[in-house]
Amino acid sequence: MAQTTVSIRMDDELKKDFDTICNELGMTMTTAVIMLAKKMSREKRLPFEVSIDPFYSESNMKALHESVEQMKAGKTITKTFEELEGLADE
């Protein structure tokens, strides 16, 4: 079967981490990428879940902006960690 070369650009630190993990698993980065390509070709999907961090959801960002505005307006309530734990126990 004919072979071709695929070039991938990635951050240096990511490459080092990826290479380390591949080596620990007893394979090369090339083998890992080929495994990914074969699995995706066979299953016609990504073999893992892709999602957006819920921290950046529209509702959470709105709540964070509201909290910042409340802080700027001096409308905040300060509690110690122990007071918060007490509220959780109620």
Concise synopsis of the structure shown:
With 90 residues, this protein is mainly alpha-helical.
Question: Could you explain how this protein is built, in words?
Answer:
The protein is built from four helices and no strands. The protein has two domains: 1-50; 54-89, no CATH class. The chain starts with 11 loop residues before the first helix and ends with a helix. With 90 residues, the chain is mainly alpha-helical.
Relevant terms:
90 residues; mainly alpha; 2 domains; 58% helix; elongated
- Structural class from helices and strands? mainly alpha
Largest sheet properties: none
Strand content: under 5%
What is the average per-residue confidence, as pLDDT, rounded to a whole number? 91
Strand and helix order: HHHH
From the spread of the alpha carbons, the general shape counts as elongated
Secondary structure tally: strands: 0
Radius of gyration: 24 Å
Total number of helical segments?
A: 4
As for the number of domains, it is 2
Query: What level of helicity do the residues show?
Result: 55-70%
Distance between the termini: 68 Å
The parts where pLDDT drops under 50 for at least 5 residues are none
Q: Helices, strands, pairings?
A:
Elements: H1 12-24, H2 29-43, H3 58-72, H4 81-89
